[in-house]
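General statements about sequence and structure are easier to judge against a single worked case. In the encoding step, the backbone of a single protein was reduced to a row of integers, each denoting a local shape. The record that follows shows the chain in one-letter code together with its fold in token form.
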Amino acid sequence: MSVLKKAIVILVILLISLVSFLGINTRNLNGWKNILPDYELSKELTGTKSFGFAVDDSTEEQEISDGEQQEESENTEETENAEEAETSEDTDTTEEDEQEPKTTQVPVNKPENLNANNYRKARDIIEKRIKSFGIIDSTISVDEGNGNINVEVPNETNSEYLFDLITEQGKFEIVDSETEEVLLDSSAISSASAFYAQSDASTEDSILYDLGVTIEFNSAGEKKLNEISKTYVEYTDSNGDLAQKTVTIRIDGEDKRVTYFAPDSNYTNLNLTLYQGVDANQEDTFNENYRQCLIYQTLLDSEQLPITYVNTSSTYFESTLTQKHIMVMAIIGAAIVVIVAAIIIKKLGKKGVLATLIEVGFIALLLILIRYAGVAITLTSLVMILFMAMINYLLLLMIINEGTVGGLKKMIVNIIPLFITIIVFVFSKDINISSAGMVGFWGVITFIYTVVCSLLLLNERNDK
């Protein structure tokens, strides 16, 4: 039983190592994909893209309502009244019927919205959007005088997606398709999530998918949505034909869907389909469409921007660390681990081999946790990975020399100052320090793995 137990533990460690270093490749649509998240590389390692955004000072055409037209005509009525009475008595009605709706040019950003408070709010919303979208190492600054925003992100970030996150307001509306009355807006949303589901139009030869966003509503939004669902339904008109009273779902003024409801249903969310019948064989198209759905998810999950921005500049700054430098550092780190392992194996024999095996599993598990936690990889975090690997070796040596319980007690006493330092690092605003702190935090968590494996493989004193 002892041999079987150790064999199972060794196989588990090897499995963890293979998963971490080689990944898990599974079927994805009609291809293969590693289901492990990619490493989040910082600007320091990939280079920096810097983008400038300015407050949109353009205007847009807007139709003047009847009330506004009447107010405008009253301003000139007194001076033109006598002349108009003589020339247009018989044609007023005809001209009013034939006259096209009047329009005027209005600023995209209302002057009263252009203030320091809204500039700061816009920066905070943009920062939240970028982090929510998965861009970890970003820097956002705002000029509170003119509202201009500068954004710096790692070079690997797709610029097109970034522009959408910053230049789109995220304004959500459900309106009456006929009267344009706003029935529901962004304030009713509690959360949003992208989805894809196999389409009913799929065949044996072609698998099709519908992609979109599921919108969850807060309690007030649910109540209003269910009120709407009783009115905007299919009905039979006076001629006995089926007709529908519909609503239009809009995002940032763009019509996304015209629909009606089943009156007997109880609605808590809406599935807003944005792309229909996407062929699974067209993987690039599928991924692009799904990424757009993720953008809408991010926009609807955050507050609506109080100001509209336009992109004004794009600059690339190359990293001082090339791929060659990173490869050299990785080789040096691996060489240090191998040298230490060789010394321990030579000194301790069989126990040294088991300790080295546990160490390899520790590094592999730590790398998996870093991936799933979305830790930004910086130069300092790479150094911290090596540092935590050395600390883990010290823990193993203490366990071998003093037993699992004795070694663990001694290690805990020595690690308390390190753990406090790591926690302080985690909450730092500097990406280099915080990333090192996050690596250290997950390294401490991974020590649990080391203790368990030591109990099963190195414990010859039957410690409880």
About this structure: DSSP finds twelve helices and 19 strands in the chain.
